[in-house]
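Hey team,

Sharing the Benzil reductase ((S)-benzoin forming) run so nobody has to redo it. Sequence (252 residues) first:
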Amino acid sequence: MQYAIVTGASRGLGEAIARQYILQNINVIAVSRRGNQKLESLAKEQGREFHHISCDLSDMDDLNEGLHRISEIAFHEDTHYVYLVNNAGVIEPIDTVGDLEPETVQKHMQVNVTAPILMINRCIKEANDRDIDLGIINITSGAAEKTIHGWSTYSSSKAAINRFTETLALEQEEKGHTIFAYSPGVMDTDMQGEIRSSSEDSFANVDKFRKLKEEGELRSPDEVASVLMNLLREPKKIENGKVYKLYDLVED
Ligand SMILES: NC(=O)c1ccc[n+]([C@@H]2O[C@H](COP(=O)([O-])OP(=O)(O)OC[C@H]3O[C@@H](n4cnc5c(N)ncnc54)[C@H](OP(=O)(O)O)[C@@H]3O)[C@@H](O)[C@H]2O)c1
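Structure output:
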């Protein structure tokens, strides 16, 4: 049996990735605060398992409980492969340093950095104890490699996840796991809506992002998820620890 654990599968890119896994006959464990009725119905139609783990990744108790339930469902004697897609993410706080709200920074780091690290930590332990291969995909951002006014927290959390991915790949060199980060480019999701609603004081480049939407430059999450699935089709060609960028994987 194969499972795909997808965080943030209630909407946006996570929903699109979970949908593609279901269509490939892979059982899905969706982790988010809200559920997704459409995915649940699709899994039923396809005869696949769909588990929604209701979990606020910014809350340590919720995260620990979620990890326990995920392990029970995904790692058993009939499991031969598990994907873990660390996709859930937040962009806020968008603000300049000095005006950052402490609780928002703390939650941001917990969702974007601590939760993916602990998800991987648990899955590596369960998989290595049972000789199960993993496919670990960390969703990152071009912001990890850019300095953007107002995005200090987001750029830092995505840079941290890139470095974690590289270190993990180094440590797991002898194992059969596939481990990489995927930078999806700009997509038409709620996160872009949040970015566009920023003030110019908080985010100097807000106009550029408003134009991307007006000019139809945002990709659909379905298209971005398909590019990821194409990459996963040839796992032997994947370089562990690398950041794969959508812009390098598509024609235009
Ligand atoms: N959109 C872009 O242009 C863009 C560009 C580059 C990279 N990315 C990255 O792509 C990934 C997906 O982004 P998106 O645009 O699809 O975002 P989105 O539409 O805002 O969706 C975010 C997802 O994360 C989940 N999430 C947020 N906070 C959570 C929490 N505290 N606990 C559990 N789940 C939580 C949400 O689920 P619930 O609200 O149901 O909990 C939702 O499913 C993120 O890692 C993002 O950084 C996005």
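The two ends are 37 Å apart (CA to CA).

Ping me if you want the raw files.
A.
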